[in-house]
Amino acid sequence: MQLKKRAAIDLVKLGVILQVELENTHNGGLNWQFVINAVIFYSNIKDFLVKWWLKVEGCGTLRGRSGVKDMFLGEYHHSIDNKGRIIIPSKFREALGESFVITRGLDQCLFGYPRNEWSELEEKLKGLPLTKKDARAFTRFFFSGATECEIDKQGRVNIPSTLLNYGKLEKECVVLGVSNRIEIWSKPIWEEYFAESEDSFSEIAENMIGFDI
Q1: Burial class (CB in 10 A: 0-12, 13-18, 19+), 167
Q2: Which of 69, 61, 16, 75 is nearest to 43 (CA)?
Q3: pTM above 0.70, yes or no
Q4: Could you say which of 3, 15, 73, 169 would form a disulfide bridge with 177 (CB–CB 3.0 to 4.6 Å)?
């Protein structure tokens, strides 16, 4: 059973490697955004396969949708209007549900979580020791900026002014799918961040080796 589980994980890893090589061949050079998405995809699908195999005990069939989480992937460009409304990509809406939680993220972007993911994060944050200054600060940072947003019939959400100011969201924005959450960036900030990350991607990838990615 363990050998079969390992084989399934290796097969997914091989598929991701082949996808990257094909992208490289077709485009005459690596698309680093594609590579980053491929690494994120493999990291998460690997964990899913392990949990799935333990759940079904190697029988090779899923029991309904229980235990299966939606994964957010991709990069989308949208504009934010003067009322603070932005379109959520259609591919993200079903997984997010009619309402989801948006809060301050890291690197000056906003994080958006489906209700079930937010509940899990909430439980983890509750477990942080209140006696630790950093734990208190991090908890305040996340909870004080959190708000529940509803998706309207046009697929838009209305972002509060406090979060708009934090993310410096004015006109052009980028909406990213990052595993279990979405991120909303100001386009200029994202482009600057991505350019810096692209230059040091090899070093970043090397530092991730210890995490079994």
Answers
A1: buried
A2: 16
A3: no
A4: 73
Question: Who contacts 160 (Cβ-Cβ below 8 Å, separation ≥6)?
Answer: 84, 147
pLDDT in tens, the chain (213 residues): 444 445 444 544 545 454 544 445 455 555 555 555 555 555 555 555 545 444 444 433 333 344 446 689 999 999 999 999 999 999 999 899 989 999 999 999 999 999 999 999 999 888 888 899 999 998 999 899 999 999 999 999 999 999 999 999 999 999 999 989 999 999 999 999 998 887 777 676 666 666 555
Q: Which residue in this structure is represented by tokens 């595993």?
A: 179
Length of the chain: 213
- Of 26, 56, 31, 74, the closest CA to residue 198 belongs to 31
- The side-by-side arrangement of strands in the sheet containing 110-113 is 72-79, 172-179, 181-186, 110-113, 99-104, 147-150
177, 100, 103, 83: which is closest to 145 by C-alpha?
103
